[in-house]
Amino acid sequence: MFFAKAVSVLALVCLPISGAGLAHAQDTKEKAAAVKEEDGKWFDADGNPTYNIKDDGTVDWYTFSGYRRYHSDCHVCHGPDGVGSSYAPALAATMKNMDYGTFLSIVAEGRKNLSAGKENVMPAFGDNKNVYCYMDDLYIYLRARSVDGIPRGRPPKKADKPQAAKDAEASCMGG
Question: Which of 62, 70, 92, 120 is most enclosed, with most CB atoms within 10 A?
């Protein structure tokens, strides 16, 4: 888990200051499929964090944590379950064409768009530990929503919090 967080931080440092990045081809359930697990966190074939749902409907801890964090800090602008609002995009749709590095960059650095005479501003959350320490969780949750891997609403069952998640949280939050 510490390694995954270190990779996330490294990705932020290496991304362009503008917050722009190359979007990948449309994400699908097949591309987002979990193929590897490390300390309770799942990854796709390309090594990107992803969600995992057991046959009984139990979501992995990081998906559940992402749901909680999203509804704590993001839903006010982006709507419940990533469905959007009158002034912020539907992340459940946007994430279909956004790669992991671009997501990290936008959340950390913010972004300003001017389209059709309307200015949209995504504030930077790189200094907000309640967001920054859980960016992978947010990405995993929104990725699951974007490919209809999980329905709207609170996941009914969740895996236990792995020790690696506890350790990373304590390290990042300064506890």
Answer: 62
